[in-house]
Amino acid sequence: MILFVVYNMETKNILIKNVLILNPKDNDENNNHDHIEIFKGSVLIENDRIAEISSEISSSDVNKIIDGENKILMPGLINTHNHISMNLFRGIADDIPLETWLKDNIWPLEAGLNGKYCYAGAILAAIEMIKSGTTTFNDMYFFMEDVANATKDSGIRGCLSHGMIDFGDPEKREKEFKENIKLIKNCNNKAEGRIKTFFGPHSPVTASKELLERVRKEANKYNVGIHIHMNETQIEVENVLKTTGKRPFEYLEELKFLGDDVIAAHGVWLSKEEMNIIKNRDVKISHNPCSNMKLASGISPINELLEKKICVSLGTDGAASNNNLDMFEEMKFASLLQKVNTMNPQSLPSDMALKMATLNGAKSLGLENDIGSIEVGKKADVILIDVDSANMTPMSKKISSNLVYSANGSNVHTTICNGEILMENRKLTKLNEADILQQGNIAIKELIEAKEAEN
Ligand SMILES: N[C@@H](CCSC[C@H]1O[C@@H](n2cnc3c(=O)[nH]cnc32)[C@H](O)[C@@H]1O)C(=O)O
Ligand SMILES: [Zn+2]
Description:
Blueprint (H helix, E strand, L loop, with lengths): L1 H9 L2 E12 L11 E11 L2 E6 L9 E4 L3 E5 L1 E6 L15 H13 L4 H17 L2 E8 L2 H11 L2 E8 L5 H18 L7 E7 L7 H14 L2 E6 L3 H11 L3 H7 L7 E5 L5 H10 L2 E4 L1 H6 L7 H6 L4 E3 L12 H16 L7 H8 L1 H6 L17 E5 L12 H8 L5 E6 L2 E5 L2 E2 L4 H22 L1
Parallel strand pairs: 1-4, 1-5, 6-7, 7-8, 8-9, 9-10, 10-11, 11-12, 12-13
Antiparallel strand pairs: 1-2, 2-3, 5-14, 14-15, 15-16, 16-17
Helix pairs in contact: 3-4, 3-16, 8-9, 12-13, 13-15
Bound molecules: the ligand N[C@@H](CCSC[C@H]1O[C@@H](n2cnc3c(=O)[nH]cnc32)[C@H](O)[C@@H]1O)C(=O)O and zinc ion.
């Protein structure tokens, strides 16, 4: 009797009843078809994990029941490249190429950042992600312990790295290592295991050979992954060619830097040889179509990467180059961009886009045993999509068509991460939305005023 009471007090159960379940799968030879399993059923969540999936689950002894009528249940979306605190810089520098965007616009503003501002930007971003169905993000930025606090407070899952830039300066390098290692020591596996830490060498242009070589050693030592920007613009590739005589992936191959724990953002300008290196080393590519289009960086040859069975996931990049964190938009743009790039409407079909935003994201972050699909034993990172809305009516026979081509983030009805309901019926359960929006506005106003006072 006593045992029964203790069990009931400690186990938090959520039953999602009679819902259309959409599950990305890795089950076939052909990388372009049938990645998505769809069936009607009920899902029982016990504490942080999916405990049961079947057609009939008893409602007794359940703390909470969610009616799945008119809803699709799918894995929470995984955004594999971001700088979430940059939500503060939304709309601050539009219609400019990457190099000037960074040097003349973003870096001067970033000089005024502190932990409080980075928290304000990150928690704002967390709201945006929860409200548009993202449950995991991969981040590289400053003041990452404050971003860790925002991750903790918001309930979502985050992979965090300190963006390391040294431009060859040994003192700066030392500081960057100290900072990233401190982040790893203080935050790895924290917030009920929702936080993982990575090393974040910014790019082969901004980080020296010494920095990159040391990152590989330290990543092995601490057993964490590496998050880096690669081959984003033609200018960046030319710079690496000029200074090293090699293209960026060839250069990193020579440094023995690459491995299956490396997630490379962008990968826009890639030679055939570089694609082979990526494949051989099982490097993961985070494709950021909106950012690449907005900064006119170019079109990544995703079709070719997928044909080679390279693991490609999706990221938004920061809100200053996107300008939002809606992964539904990212799926659609990824698909449309490959279609027009190859002049073939069959390129990157909706099933593949969904898989990139879920299962491939999980694999890219080394989290495939825990997230990315709806399986018993995996973490309960799931979202419910409301199909009872004008832009989802009528539902296509191919559910992924509605989700990728018709939906947007505001069709997300409920967001659950690590077994906790973070939004239900579009209402946040943990965060005070109005207050956080206001804090975000104050932060950017102060940052701009401080910069203007300097000039
Ligand atoms: N510790 C470094 C900060 C690096 S954080 C990561 C950096 O990446 C920048 N960033 C954001 N988006 C992109 C992009 O698309 N390409 C390259 N850099 C970017 C961002 O503004 C930030 O400066 C320092 O001392 O400067
Ligand atoms: Zn970036």
